[in-house]
Write a structure and sequence with these properties.
Radius of gyration: 21 Å
Strand order of the largest sheet: 2-1-3-4-8-7
Structural class: alpha/beta
CATH superfamily of the largest domain: Thiamin diphosphate (ThDP)-binding fold, Pyr/PP domains
Mean pLDDT: 94
Largest sheet: 6 strands, parallel
Strand content: 5-15%
Low-confidence stretches: 330-337
Length: about 350
């Protein structure tokens, strides 16, 4: 990446696209048409963009409640995401899942859930499937620092190590589990990656705002997993700018200081990488403006698509809930549904 301008521009484009989409979601949220909690990834775009670039569309990924960037980085449909957040039938979960339940099987994004740590065993199961199929696919599991405190993390990592599964754990340590700082939840002088190392995983660490260092360790892990198995556990230090859940800033709540926030904001991975590209390659303002206009047009079209899409009808409530031996819905189920509605 360091000496490849094409890769650098692609990474910048992916980060910028995630940033502007998330900002658009925040700006539209006050319209109250998105009746779903949102956990924005503003400030955390770098790792998602890099992982999405280095994985193949055929690789699998699972994510967390803060899934927008991972979904978009993996290539998930923007139209389907925005429609889903509006509860429309054209959404990726046909309007049932909202912001925290995103899925796009066509690009290997196998799902995200609201329950902390819930997708970890799913990702490990996908890794086991890949190993048994000898298909050289990787299963990528995105987690936050809070998920490391769930029992299912230890059980799943232990199984992945035991079976040498091609699983890539990506831990985005943004220092807070909702409002609880990392140092109040974990012993001093123990990094998250130390836990994974003690359990037998291959590990590495990078500052998630250092795009070159992050790219290097992700690329190394991906290449190794395709050849030698795994698992790999990578920890990235990063920072969310907005509130834990919602479109606003929340520094006034007192769980983190304005000074801390501004220190991280000064290191903005999107803006700083833009400045690097300008200084290193003399890219013009028009070059970046054209990129922004392209993204903004895509975002505008996605919100128009969501606005014009229909809400699900009542029959959708049971579609896909059960596998039936007969193609038609049983009458008893139909009558129960009619009663409920």
């Amino acid at each position: 990446m360091k000496n490849n301008l094409d890769i650098q521009i692609e990474i910048y484009y992916r980060m910028l696209r995630i940033r502007r989409i998330e900002e658009a979601v925040a700006n539209h949220y006050k319209e109250q048409k998105m009746r779903t909690p949102v956990h924005l990834s503003i400030g955390q775009e770098g790792v998602a963009a890099l992982v999405g670039y280095l994985l193949k569309p055929t690789d699998y990924a699972v994510s967390t409640h803060r899934a927008h960037a991972h979904y978009l980085g993996k290539g998930g449909s923007l139209n389907a995401m925005i429609a889903e957040m509006h509860g429309k039938v054209t959404g990726c979960c046909r309007g049932r899942g909202g912001s925290m339940h995103l899925i796009d099987l066509s690009v290997g994004f196998m799902g995200s859930t609201a329950i902390v740590g819930n997708t970890i065993p799913v990702g490990v199961g996908l890794g086991l499937s890949n190993k048994l199929s000898h298909n050289e696919k990787i299963s990528c599991i995105f987690v936050g620092d809070g998920a490391i405190e769930e029992g299912v993390f230890f059980e799943s990592l232990n199984f992945a190590v035991l079976k040498k599964l091609p699983v890539l754990f990506i831990c985005e340590n943004n220092r807070y589990s909702v409002y609880s700082p990392f140092e109040k939840r974990q012993p001093a002088n123990r990094n998250i990656y130390d836990i994974a190392f003690a359990m037998g995983a291959k590990i590495n660490y990078a500052d998630g705002y250092d795009l070159f260092a992050s790219y290097e360790i992700i690329e190394e892990a991906v290449q190794a997993l395709r050849q030698d198995g795994g698992p790999y556990f990578l920890e990235f230090e990063t920072y969310r700018w907005r509130e834990h859940c919602g479109p606003n800033y929340d520094n006034d709540l007192g769980y983190r200081s304005e000074a801390e926030f501004l220190e991280w904001k000064m290191r903005d991975p999107v803006e700083n990488f833009r400045q690097y590209l300008i200084e290193e390659y003399q890219l013009s303002a028009d070059f970046f403006k054209e990129m922004e206009n392209k993204i903004d047009e895509e975002i505008k079209n996605a919100f128009t698509f969501a606005e014009n899409s229909p809400f699900p009808d009542k029959e959708e409530a049971v579609t896909g809930q059960y596998k039936m031996s007969e193609p038609s819905t049983p009458l008893t189920q139909h009558f129960v549904l009619e009663e409920a509605l």
